[in-house]
Structure formats: C-alpha cells, structure tokens
Amino acid sequence: MGKIVEFFLDRPLLVNIIVITVIGLGIINAFKSQKEGFPEISLNQIHIITVYPGASARDVEINVTASIEEALEEVDGIKEITSVSEEGISSIIVKANENATDADFQDLYTEVDNALSKIDDLPNDIESKPTINKFTSKDIPVLEVSFSGTYESLKKYIPYIENKIKKVSGVASIDVIGLPDEEIHILVDPIKAKKKMVGLTTISYAIKKRNLEGSGGTLESFIGEKKIVSFNKFKEFKDVLETNVVMSSEGYGVKLKEIATCAITPKDMKLLVRNNGKRGVVLVIKKNAKSDIVKTVEAVKRTLKKFQPPKEISSKITVDQSDFTKSRLEILIGNSFIGFILVTILLFLIFNRKTAIWTAFGIPFTLLGMIIFLKLNNITLNIISLGGFIIVLGMLVDDAIVIAEEINSNKEKGMEP
Q1: Are 161 and 279 a contacting pair, CB within 8 Å?
Q2: Are the C-beta atoms of 217 and 228 separated by less than 8 Å?
Q3: pLDDT per residue over 102-134, tens digit each?
Q4: Which CA distances in Å does 360 have to 57, 170, 214, 355, 411?
Q5: What does R_g of the chain's alpha carbons equal in angstroms?
Q6: For residue 359, which of 133, 213, 237, 375 sits 20 to 30 Å off, Cα-Cα?
Q7: Which residue has the higher pLDDT, 220 or 373?
Q8: 55 sits in which H/E element
Q9: Model-level pTM?
Q10: Do 213 and 230 meet the contact criterion of CB atoms below 8 Å apart?
Q11: Higher model confidence: residue 302 or residue 206?
Q12: CA geometry: angle at 98 spanning 96 and 101, to 5°?
C-alpha cells in the first residue's frame, strides 16, 4: 500500500489527469446511465396459460391442466409446479431449481415448450395452444393510465392511443384491461327455426362448413400441377346470415337470415373496470429491459399529452414507477450535497483550509467514480445501487475525517508530508 501511495506522490501530473478524467466521465455517465426502479432479475418461473371458453373449472382441470402437468413430469430441472383451474382458464406456474443458472433456466424453458408441443389430447374448443412466458422483474408495469367514458367512445380511442404508445422508444408491451374483444352473437328465433325444422346443431355445422380457408390439395395435368386453395372465410359479420343452413338437391333451402339475426357485442370477460364510478379502461405499460424508466415514462406522457382523448373521455395516471426512481435520485443528490456542505464546514472548524477542501472533495469524486464503475459493468441506477450509494456516503465521510485527523496528528508530531 505504501508503494502505491509513493507512486502517485511522485507523479502529480498523472494524479491530476486521473482526477479530471474521473470527473468528466462521471458527469457524462451520470446522464447516460440507465435508471429504473428495480434491477432486472429472473425469478426462475415459467407461466403457462390455456384458455378454454365455456368450460367449468372441473372440466378445465380434467381436460387441460391434468394433461399439461402429465407432460411436464418428464421435464428435468423443475422444483415445483403450481396450477390453478378456473372457469374457462388454466394457469400453471413452473418453478426451476433455486441454483439454476441463466443457461439452465433457458434450457428448462425450451424443454417445457417442447413438452407442450407434444401434447395431442387437448380439447378442440380451446382458443389457442397453451401460451408460455418467462416471469422476470421486467414484467412489472412502469405506468398505468386509466380512462373513463362510454364503451363506444373508448372502443374508438383506446386502440388508437395504444398504437401511438407502442411506437414510443423503450415501450415493450401494453396490456389493455377492461376493453374486451367483440364477438358475433347469432340470435336464433326458436319459433321460426321450429317451422323450418332446423336445430342449433344443424346451424352450427353449416356455419363451420361455410367458414373455411385452407389448402385443398394439388391438381395435376400434362402441363404441370397447381395447388388448390380454398378462400371461403366470412368478410363481414352480415355474410353469416347468407349461410345456407339446409339445402336440397333442387337448390331450395333455408338461409340463416330467415330464422336468426346477428349482433356484435363485447366479449364477456367476467371483468368490469370502473374509474370514478364510470366504465373505464386501464392501459398497463411495460418497458424494455434495457430502456431508461424515467426517459420512457416521460416519452409516454408526452405522447398522451399530444394525442389527448375526446371530451367525453377522461384520463388519469394511476401508477408511475418513475416517480419512485426519481425520488431516490433526489434523496441521493440531496444527501450528497448536504453531506458535502456539513463535512466541509466541520473540517474547516477542525483542520486547515487545504486539508478541509481535499477531504470534502472525496465525496463527489468517489460518487462520480462509482457511476463510471456501474456503467462499465452494465449496472443500472436503481433502488439497490442507490441504497448502496447512500451507505457508502456515510462510510466515506467517517473514513475521510479519520484519515485527515491522522495526517494532521502526524504532521504536528513533526513527521514530514
């Protein structure tokens, strides 16, 4: 340690260059460093969701959850499987071993995905294949915006503002809560259907048979071969009423419009969102893992201000995680400034001017050096790193005073600098 001190004492120019470099790079990196509420961590959990519309909780458990759990039994590296079967939905959380590395967890994710793709006994009525997602700290929303208004006005404005926010740099995804998709309801008149001798099963089969799209094989000839593709999907919801429910060999039959009507209604999601007593919608906004939470939230706020909703819709920001981060930064800056002033005053009362100034100078110099260290190691400014900053400040002040007092004591005893 003594040789290191002597090395720098003999090279004052080098010391000055290092001090100027640390101050310059520290200030630059302070503005460029990524800021977020919490550091991104992997919770080693995989979430599997399967939607089974209209099924009871027992049907979901027997036909969906049990089949997935059976497939997961062959996967190694799983510590625990937790499943919840509710009406119309199956939710399964797979937890990896606690000592699993990032590479191990990625392998587990791949094996779980492969196991799900091999399941062939799931009901045909499920909306889609089971969705699989990793659960990390970046899934925590950074901003939630509530909108209140009529369903008709919200239906027009929410998709518009959602697309605008998605274009903001740093936004990863947006979850819309309270604005369900629309679906077509076919309202069959039982009296008319009875007169035409048409049942619900016949109507359902006729619609499925009419609404088709896919490959029909290959037509071969001496010239070559051509693929046959059928495009018979409904283009508009009113086209459903033109479906031939019953057709005779002579071409006579019953069209759906003779016995039923169609209506577009919001899908029943078993959820109703209200803001201030009015029907509402909530946009849950999540940021990218590498984006700055403060800059991202500010950019989203500017977008909301630029594309304001119509008068019949009111909006309000209900959750803003950037405020938490900014408050921690303000505490750090405030504590550093107050500590610097108090220590400087105290040192001026105890030591001479030169010793007081250089002892106090260690506070901002160390903080700027730590910011450079964080940037080089891709560590963000978050609640954990900022908490460490605050602790280091207290230790730094104590050590600086002790060292300065020791140096002064040795000088008073006649020891040469």
Answers
A1: no
A2: yes
A3: 788 888 888 888 888 888 888 877 877 888 887
A4: 66, 38, 76, 9, 19
A5: 33
A6: 375
A7: 373
A8: none
A9: 0.64
A10: yes
A11: 302
A12: 80
